[in-house]
Amino acid sequence: MNKTFFNQRESQCFGDKRDVLSIFNPNTQKPKSIQPGMTVDEIADVVSDHLIEVIKEQFNAAKLEYVTKTK
């Protein structure tokens, strides 16, 4: 099936530098901090990973508080 795009940017194929199967590799090395020269996608990955960790910590703290109150 052919697709026609009026926006030329959408018809371009932007390849990712990572291997497709790398998502299943548990030993992926991701940067933990923002460094000079990083792309926007790399910075977004660092920020989103940090936010996910903060949310997990808050969830675990709320869970512990709930468990201690219900006992």
The number of helices is 2
Strand content: under 5%
Helix content: 40-55%
Overall shape: elongated
Question: What does the model show?
Answer:
- With 71 residues, the protein is mostly helical.
- It has one domain.
- Helix content is 49%, strand content 0%.
- It is elongated.
- The N and C termini lie far apart (60 Å).
Summarize this, please?
The protein is mainly alpha-helical and 71 residues long. Helices cover 49% and strands 0% of the residues. It has one domain (8-70).
Defining key terms:
single chain; mainly alpha; 0% strand; elongated; 49% helix; 2 helices; 71 residues
Strand and helix map with partners:
Elements: H1 8-11, H2 40-70
